[in-house]
Amino acid sequence: MSDNKKILLSHGGGGEEMQSLIGGLFFKHFGNEILDKMEDSATLDVKGKIAFTTDSFTVTPLFFNGGDIGKIAIAGTVNDLVSAGARPLYISCGFIIEEGFLYKDLEQIVLSMKAELEKSGAKIVAGDTKVVPKGKADGIFINTSGIGEIICGDISSHNLNEGDAIIISNEVGNHGACILANREELRVSGDLKSDCASLFAPVSALFENGIKPKALRDATRGGLSAVLNEWALASNVGIEVNESDILVSNEVRGLCEIFGFEPYELANEGTMAICVKQEDAEKALEILREFDECKKANIIGKVLNSYKQRVILKSPWGTSRFLEPPKGELLPRIC
Amino acid sequence: MSDNKKILLSHGGGGEEMQSLIGGLFFKHFGNEILDKMEDSATLDVKGKIAFTTDSFTVTPLFFNGGDIGKIAIAGTVNDLVSAGARPLYISCGFIIEEGFLYKDLEQIVLSMKAELEKSGAKIVAGDTKVVPKGKADGIFINTSGIGEIICGDISSHNLNEGDAIIISNEVGNHGACILANREELRVSGDLKSDCASLFAPVSALFENGIKPKALRDATRGGLSAVLNEWALASNVGIEVNESDILVSNEVRGLCEIFGFEPYELANEGTMAICVKQEDAEKALEILREFDECKKANIIGKVLNSYKQRVILKSPWGTSRFLEPPKGELLPRIC
User: Fold this and answer.
1) The whole model's pTM is what?
2) Could you tell me what percentage of chain A is helix, strand and coil, using 3-state DSSP and rounding each to the nearest 5?
């Protein structure tokens, strides 16, 4: 196949060309007994409570250090399901492709999705492809919606109580900083790698070891700061975190200084904020750190009964300030 | 609120502005006990077999005679679920909005979605909003994914047998022709109205009256021709349809003559192809015609044991030709 084969409007028209794209690319790599039935809706057997989530991905650049739009589309939806205490089972995939998009880039994206699906065992069971004329979209946008079977119930941002521990599963800010550096073509970009990863394995290891998180949240847009503020608001509590316990790489810190970003507001794509009972915190940390994507997990703070609906950031020098909810023009199109 | 208030990049950034858009518009109109929990995933109780489907909508113009992108996004996903014999229950909604899009247009779209949801009782339970810089998308794209409870099982394009009747629930080609006319700003456009409609009511009336369709399909992209060809292929049968029984309005016929389109290939957005046992055909027709959106329903042909995998179109003059699967550049962005 020629390297400059392009996606045409006819690939989204509902006719023979679309069938050939679907068969030759999507079914070839995503194929499974449900998808292969090629009905407009997948028929699924589910039991009990399920989690259901959706995300559209518009990240630019499409390919970045540590991932691409395909990997992030799967990891993002998997992590949303995991945040609800669910085992990711079924994912739908809607492509909006700009006319002229390179077939080989689409194939690379599809292969990334396939590889990422294998990490949680989720399957693509429904799809849709639209092609819009050149200039009417920016390369490719992907929507993934997912269904998971809830295996650990009652995880919610409303559950925080005084004394609970707050854990973050990784350094923060890597994804946002990586995208920013890639976009600005900074020399530092080579040292920055997105944390983009599916977190079903480490989080389900918590469940299997009898740890029931009270709240779980993928710290994507708005970063750690958005999650903690949402939790403080939803549970009507204060949250106190220690700056020295929140790991930020030197590269991310440097980039934040140059551009005036707050690392706690930068997006992550494979980093989970986890609230557990204080007595579970050390054990949770030990379990998480056994996984590559969580080996920098750390306890960063605790829930207070004071400073309600606020997040307090304590510096190593004993001072403290409010960590405000992010606002204004954050870095756009990071996911 | 000012009439020219616009959507800004910050409305998709994950910060305060996004929360205000979500609260002030989406939750205001879509709110329900599940969505109001504001978790990243909705937690749902489902029983038995479910149908799951996804569709992205990129229609242009966004507002057309008979509907808009919001109405079509709900009706399209509802109809995909109905095609699987399901009662639509839960819908997710992912918006990709171009910076500078008018708030009042977004509100109108949201209100259309709300009105259309009421026709089937489905609820929006999960959402996502992305804003991309001006010029990186075309106004607004919407993805809707849906979950339905299967209330009439084993509906499939693989089920057709010799002698079965083929019904179409309406005139064909109205949506595609309406979009074409609106886009070309033709004078005829006022007489053309999209068939865009949710078909849960008429189809569930079939189920309730003991009629179990063998196959059901919303004749969207690729039109009636695409559906019949897919069925003929999937069931390894021939399908014979009578040109004089397939209703096409004079306006649609005229437009097709001007532009060289085949009315059977034009998209419909509220028109279902239905295959039933021959003995159920008349009763099915009677039931369907009780509903406004199906009052022009007609039996258009039958399944053959010859001409396998082909569709035969018989003219009123006794001649016949193959109705080929659509190919090439069909009308883009009709849904």
Assistant:
1) 0.95
2) 35, 25, 40
CATH number of the domain at A79, please: 3.30.1330.10
Range of the structural domain that residue A54 is part of? 9-150
Domain boundary among A85, A117, A150: A150
Whether B1 has a pLDDT exceeding 60, the answer reads no
In-domain check, residue A1: no
CB contact under 8 A, A37 and B93: no
Coil, helix or strand for A211? Answer: coil
Q: Has residue B160 been placed in a domain? A: no
CA B8 to chain A, closest CA, distance in angstroms equals 9
Place of tokens 């009677």: B286
Interface ipTM? 0.95
Q: Where among B150, B177, B197 does a domain terminate?
A: B150
Could you give the CA distance from residue B80 to residue B148 in angstroms, rounded to a whole number? 10
Are residue B318 and residue B206 in the same domain, yes or no? yes
Nearest residue on chain A to B332, alpha-carbon basis: A13
Q: Are residues B14 and B134 in the same domain?
A: yes
Nearest to A326 among B14, B86, B234 (CB): B14
Domain assignment present for residue A159? The answer is: no
A146 belongs to a structural domain: yes
**How far is it, in rounded angstroms, from Cα A106 to Cα A96?**
11
At A186, phi and psi to the nearest 5? -75, 150
Specify whether the CB–CB gap between A234 and A158 falls below 8 A.
Answer: yes
- What are the φ and ψ backbone dihedral angles of B36, each rounded to 5 degrees? -60, -15
Which two tokens mark B251?
A: 């306006």
Q: pLDDT tens digits, residue range B232-267? A: 999 999 999 999 999 999 999 999 998 889 999 999
Going by pLDDT thresholds of 50, 70 and 90, the confidence category of residue B101 is very high
User: Of A19, A132, A226, which is closest to B333 when you measure between CB atoms?
Assistant: A132
